[in-house]
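User: Please run a holo structure prediction.
Assistant: Happy to. Please share the sequence and the ligand.
User: Here you go; the ligand is alpha-D-galactopyranose.
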Amino acid sequence: MKLQDLASHVSSEFEKLYGRPPRWIAAAPGRVNIIGEHTDYNDGFVLPMAIEYYSVMAADRPVDGREVITLRSTLEAEVATIDLTRPVRPAAPKWGNYPRGVVAGFQERGIQPGGLDVLLHSTVPLGSGLSSSAALEVCTATLLEAVTGTTLDPVEKALLCQKAEHDFAGVPCGIMDQFISALGREGHLLLLDCRPRTTELVPMSDPSVALLIINTNVKHELSGGEYAERRAQCEEAARNLGVESLRDVTAVQLEAGKSKISETVYRRARHVIGEIGRTVDAVGSVRQSDWPAVGQLMYASHAALRDDYEVSCEELDVVVEIAEAIGERGGVYGCRMTGGGFGGCCVALVKASAVEDISKKIAADYKARTGIAATIFASRPAAGATVVKG
Ligand code: GLA
């Protein structure tokens, strides 16, 4: 659904619920990462794009003038409320913690949002590695900017949202998701250098190629601490190798320092160092429209995430195997898991003319091999967060 249509839909739902039209509407997209996985918290490079799927919030001041933010969602039965007369802390229901953390971030900066009636709607598939949570945080921040008449520096806005995720959702995420949701540009990938936090837009408008997102529709809830564990292993590697972060280590230096780290930590570091290099190479190849080269880098990324970083799972591997079997002849240049891992989505770079055939083939083979129905869709690189009304 186009953003304007989506916003009209949320507007009329708001009116049904609260009995008046909203004064503000804000939206922020989810993202798919083309390459550069688990590199952001290692000061590396990432290459995501915003997708045409959004978190949308419609809002108005409450009629009773109370200093309370009431958050309702079209997807959740439970209502979340934030009492602005007290310190804002994590609370039930869980989904309210993302906006809650963002409200706290505004207050820390001395910006008081004031009471609000809000309706949230999201088309970003939840828990599928497409950053529904970052979209929700950045959407909240964009709404609060409109409501308070302030404009945060986009980098500060992304950091505020990342802090909300750390402190209110307990996830020690990197900065990729919030950056791309805030700073995405239509028709472009975003190269983010996570060390100085600088960005570069990389045009991606060749009509002969498309990006397919294949949702495995599985989410393996392991112990839940895998992300934090990977992050700690990377920090351990950097510490033992005597550097600030893995960004400072070359493949040759890693081999030379192998005896200083455990075998597992060595493999984690090998993925990160290789992936930082692959991301830089991929940008060069995208700029030259060398799609076969980009595709090979995507396959190599997947293999390292599967074997060295160990964040893939059977279903993601099956999708990549099917894509590889279709091959360039059938229109697939490359495919890899995207996002944190353990389920969620794969991203495939394909010939635009073959999108339908490839989607059908992947859906059929994935169903045959796993018994699960995948959800497959294409998205062009979309714009980042916007105020639709207000
Ligand atoms: C999650 C995190 C990001 C990033 C990816 C892995 O999406 O939120 O910061 O670390 O995993 O690349």
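The chain has eleven helices and twelve strands.
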